[in-house]
Design a protein that fits this description.
homodimer; 223 residues; mainly alpha; Arc Repressor Mutant, subunit A; 61% helix; elongated; DNA-binding
Chain lengths: 223, 223
DNA sequence: TACATTTTTGACTATTCGGTATCAAATACT
DNA sequence: AGTATTTGATACCGAATAGTCAAAAATGTA
């Protein structure tokens, strides 16, 4: 049973996708309603009728981004799960996440969208809005938190497998990797990293996970 | 011999400082000329006469930020040098840089400005502008590059002192630390980190510098 | 005092912004 | 055919935007 009324001329899924990419590329403030009308093909009235306003449209685009990057499953609302991902060694998964953050499209993560803007919409939005908009900040934090928790499960898995030292803490490691990913996203937005740079950075990051923390620099906490 | 003409009512150094802080807090697009007039105390005409326009004012504020954070010396145009800094062990300096990026004011770095906005203007600008504005992107890159080079000298120093493994590469390590600092700045802008989080992250970062890279994960480069 | 110089002051402009209202066109249902 | 419903299309709004201009006021100098 189809719904009545004049049929939309443009596919709304695609329209939201284009809007998301525009926000991703240009940021919120640099994206005007006119830009959104152009890149989506929707008309102004339709956007306001179906979403409410620019801010709400942005929130919808943010949601789309998070779903699209599979930080949460659109159906089950569960943490990221990929069949290919679960078969890989956990530290190899971490490596793919890092490479992905640095700008390398990853089949393993199911993130193969050619011509995607550099960087990350979550990172960009975190920087652009900070804590000024409650709803937006909250969604960013939960999105990053979901990723962090997933990194935790990977690192816990690696820990039980003995691939990381017994004294290492997966929670700390996960936050460390998440922070590093944010940095990679910032650098990627400024200039695409070379494969050599990426290889070196990834190697150093993985090394920090799989070497014992031991004696080093206990004087770091003497203040 | 004073210069003729009506004397300015507000100190221009302080005005530029306030403008910088406003750009730092709110970003470029979210800062209107009216905001700048309010926070600087200067009048619109004066800003346009003395700087040229909003963009040029921003560039001046960016320059001020870089000078203020001592990434380059305002007189000699040389790399960062602080007497207190050169007396510290290099890895301890790295630690202060990391803590500073995470939001901890540091006397050692001469960066004790209370009530500074969270995060980093370079990071924010890199994210907001990306590569859209040539001049701005260039200044951001040179600013970050100066910091990176300084981190390199610290890590080279640590290397010759034997505080890092013989097989480690200071250039790679410096870029790694710089990237991590960007990530810390993003996270700091979203939410201030707890001292525990900072301690853990810093410890993990320093550990990655001072442990041998050895056997680990040679399969990272098999593709 | 008269003049040059510099900043203040406030009015002004053209454009763009997000948002609204209205009506026509296209479809489904009865 | 007629009606309800949904979207397309377009004109429009007040507010905010970056930027301009022309004086007036305040200083040093001759």
């Amino acid at each position: 049973m189809k719904k009545p009324g004049r049929p939309p001329t443009v596919n709304r899924n695609n329209a939201l996708e284009q809007a998301m990419r525009h926000f991703w590329q240009e940021g919120y403030e640099r994206t005007s309603m006119e830009d959104l009308v152009t890149c989506t093909g929707m008309h102004k009235g339709s956007i306001y009728r179906e979403f409410g306003g620019k801010r709400e449209f942005f929130l919808a685009a943010l949601e789309r981004y998070i779903q699209r990057q599979s930080f949460t499953d659109s159906q089950t609302q569960q943490t990221i799960k990929s069949t290919a991902l679960s078969t890989l060694p956990p530290l190899k998964c971490i490596e793919f996440f890092l490479r992905f953050a640095a700008g390398v499209p990853s089949e393993e993560l199911g993130a193969v969208h050619p011509e995607d803007p550099p960087g990350c919409l979550l990172t960009n939005t975190a920087v652009e809005f900070g804590n000024t908009d409650k709803d937006i900040a909250e969604r960013i934090e939960t999105g990053l938190s979901t990723l962090r928790v997933f990194l935790e499960t990977l690192l816990t898995d690696a820990h039980t497998r003995g691939e990381t030292p017994s004294e290492s803490d997966p929670v700390t490691q996960a936050r460390f990797i998440l922070t590093l990913m944010q940095g990679l996203r910032v650098m990627a937005r400024l200039r695409p990293a070379t494969t050599e740079e990426i290889n070196h950075t990834v190697a150093l990051a993985l090394q920090s996970l799989s070497t014992p923390c031991s004696q080093v620099l206990s004087h770091s906490f003497d203040d």
